[in-house]
């Protein structure tokens, strides 16, 4: 059960409420986020919800039988809107476009990408400075200095940035220089990282695990939310299957299912989802029609020279076209009465 | 290698040609389809293609290194167009809509579906009369009598039908009463069935196997083509993965990949692909944007009362809306310069 | 529900019984096998089993809630023993060894394998004469003539043979020349083939599908049993997963699970299960310890020259060692008190 | 390429050597472990190995084309032996048995398990104090205090312990109280954690990822080794597939493949591998026959009352039997001439 507390609840009321829930035989977790205070009760016994509901200090109470609670649409039908400042949002009813290179490489590269984004009215940029690599001998990114440089140039241009955080110790050092922390597909179930991101007041985009289920993605989001941070974005980026003709299997089924189960915005990553440059646009547009609230894709001035993921990266001409097509497709989708 | 023969090739020229190919150390297969005669040469040794190419009786010669040959785009860049008669086509550059129930149930049901299709200008109807069921105790379809009844009503209304053939012995009895034979996902590698369908002059739609690869789907099509039948359609209908939130994982990546590898038209089945009625429209439209040449979906007057697959079947109101959205989405896609 | 009928049940008693079951609201299927007559009732309504149980003509009555019924251990706790004649059995409490080449190639090859089997007291031989191949241009086996030759030589030597049947039309022509029909992994859900094998009085070994579930394997066996043939053997041969370091993923978990769910014997195929010659012995012995009632593996005088599957085929020296190790491991397993 | 350095190499010799490798166009990584100093060269250009090989300060030089290098058998054919002190080893040619509860729960529980282990001559104990849980509301373990208590009791009894480390910050606090750090299946690609474990002089057991490949497991081990720690153990614990009848699909194919590719010892975890108590013994013995150097399984005085994983945990009677069977099976395996 989720109990939303009134802002002016007294300590005594709160204690009495906790006692009442424990009394049913439920385990309680107190959650305090940017937007409110909650008590989560976990248990299986049936109880009379009215008995708790009429107690003082309660704004609302909900039964949520899913394993995830706070990220469920069952208690919060209204979609969550992520406000990044300066009029930049990621939210249901809108189409966020996030583009940029796989890896941040140099000042020159950053400047060129930013110029490209500005020319195409794209307000969010992706890029990696800490790169998870399966081989210890591969390029691991420019690190925190690269991030500082990038953030300065981007914020000057009014561009919001999203970049991967790989471990707890990076959260704090990255904080002044990032708009959205990205949790990568290999860290979707790095529970300590999720716990710590719950303590931060910046948006977090969680990628679905390499072979993560939809349920696990929602539970990972629940970790961050229950840690205190409601600013969450979910990202479908392809899953591992037996098929070898594409890098991953982009599971667009996940988009309407996530939108139905959760109030959080859902982003699609066609670049990792298919891994082949020529087909990224089709899969991006398919993602829009599947119901995505945004698309994140890789672009680079000269993809063939990118430090990583060049084979799935669009050049600026392709990127400009895609941004236009995404917007047109989204405009059409809005005229359809889709659930 | 694929050698396309001239129509007026003499027996002597043909024999000389075969001898030449065998002489290189290649195994030959002679293929005669509705549209032409071919010699397929299988082998690994390098050879001088000009030596064969200048022989008499040859229209064209191509090196195709893929495991599949005749269905490859490497020798036939022009997309294959399936002409079903009466101005009904399945082809690249067009959008085929195929709708109908999972199972053919009764004359009344057939009439109602046909009326719905006519009202929405849908020219192809799907339906099962031989049903593959994992349990031997489940409903197995109305059989050949149901097919006759259905075919008569459909052809009277100018509607083309597609229905599953489950075994070799059914091919002949179904022949007068079907427009497109469907090979189901459990029979994609039923090689005897594919062989026999090669001998028939009617279109064949091959569904991707339950956990079939893209490569295997193309090889299954190669079976039918090399048996003598070029009228082939490929269908992506979802694959089996670890994810349990949807019936299957609709692999839309397969659409641009199949279109790039083969000259055959590609159809998407969102009904089986996600298995949840409310999300069938989104996935259908995603399929259109991914590059499909057609959409096949399930519709029934009262889905809750359907003999099978009701949970993924649209009612007629939803179906009418979806057909309209599919057409609008396809019209927009054509304005984009997608590969 | 499964109702076992008395051998001397009268037509009147049978009709009365059917009427009673239909009266509950259950669909009935009458099954007549080599060993008995059964009525299967399918439905969901609860009913008083005693009311049916006390009717005349009944030997026993069982509630079986699984999707599969007749192959379930819930009504038949006693393991099924497959008697192949001449003292050759496949059964729980015994260890069947089946060895032979992937493809039957020639009389000379057959004679050499038979000699090897005799020297090592191996009483069952595997081999393919109809080969399912993903490419239409690959070697498809010697066909029925190869089978006749092989069967004659094998039966003369007192060796029982198991070979794949690919389509309904082959069942009858193969009948005089086979001891065990094998249903291959691509045909596990070829329901027509399963239906027809139910009408035959010879043993059938069903391989698990390429990506078939344990449940589906049992349902495929149910098809044959409900068609009238109780002589069934299940075979685990590896499943398709994302892992590429082995040909398939041998799922030995399936062995104890199948043994617990069904009364049918379970065989393990380590050759296809891992696909790498050097590791076939380990996986065979692992299969024995997992609880298999038999091992089927590939052997050839000169594996490198085998027409197919050479990379996973043992030579005769390796095969002789393996047969010995299998027997020793099985003898030890019997001293353990495993479920 | 891997260059093993002589212990008495001079700084000048080292610099000259690095310069030579860089000169070929290779990227170099210097590795210093407990057992030696290495230079790893990564690149694709061909070069004359003799030219480097004859330089001073070199003990040996090897070309290793795999993505992983230091963990490969290609340069170190001799199996790695993990010496835990007091005569306890994990190594090829030996059979390590590691048993204990899923979670460490209380002093009483620890004492009972230790008593059981001592009675059965089991020298290693498993247990979790930091528990990765997919839901933030589940029991997360006793933490560092539980570890201290456990370690004291275990070391007093001469028992070595293995326990999961979930994040970098725990490495140091756990150090005095653990014998083997376990990297869990959700952290197999937590590269920062792997990096940091490279700096520690204690054994590390890396579990295969939830859907990790064999290749990825070896690369994760490469991270730790290249970070400076050679004391590595690999663990197969089941992978995620579509099959739902078992918790995971225990991939015993991985055992001989890992043993062939790497010099590191390989452990099998049948408890997580199948997830059903009744079948854990069979799968453990199958693991022994597949070639494992050890078995890790869950045991608890009263499995039904365990805080976690009770359904796959053996009671002490079952555990005692299993330990005996493992030893007998291993003794028999040693008499076979398996690769």
From TrEMBL, chains A, B, C, D:
<feature type="domain" description="DAHP synthetase I/KDSA">
    <location>
        <begin position="87"/>
        <end position="331"/>
    </location>
</feature>
<dbReference type="InterPro" id="IPR006218">
    <property type="entry name" value="DAHP1/KDSA"/>
</dbReference>
<dbReference type="GO" id="GO:0009073">
    <property type="term" value="P:aromatic amino acid family biosynthetic process"/>
</dbReference>
<dbReference type="InterPro" id="IPR013785">
    <property type="entry name" value="Aldolase_TIM"/>
</dbReference>
<dbReference type="Pfam" id="PF00793">
    <property type="entry name" value="DAHP_synth_1"/>
</dbReference>
<dbReference type="GO" id="GO:0016832">
    <property type="term" value="F:aldehyde-lyase activity"/>
</dbReference>
<dbReference type="GO" id="GO:0016740">
    <property type="term" value="F:transferase activity"/>
</dbReference>
<protein>
    <submittedName>
        <fullName>3-deoxy-7-phosphoheptulonate synthase</fullName>
    </submittedName>
</protein>
<dbReference type="InterPro" id="IPR052899">
    <property type="entry name" value="Class-I_DAHP_synthase"/>
</dbReference>
<dbReference type="InterPro" id="IPR006268">
    <property type="entry name" value="DAHP_syn_2"/>
</dbReference>
<keyword id="KW-0808">Transferase</keyword>
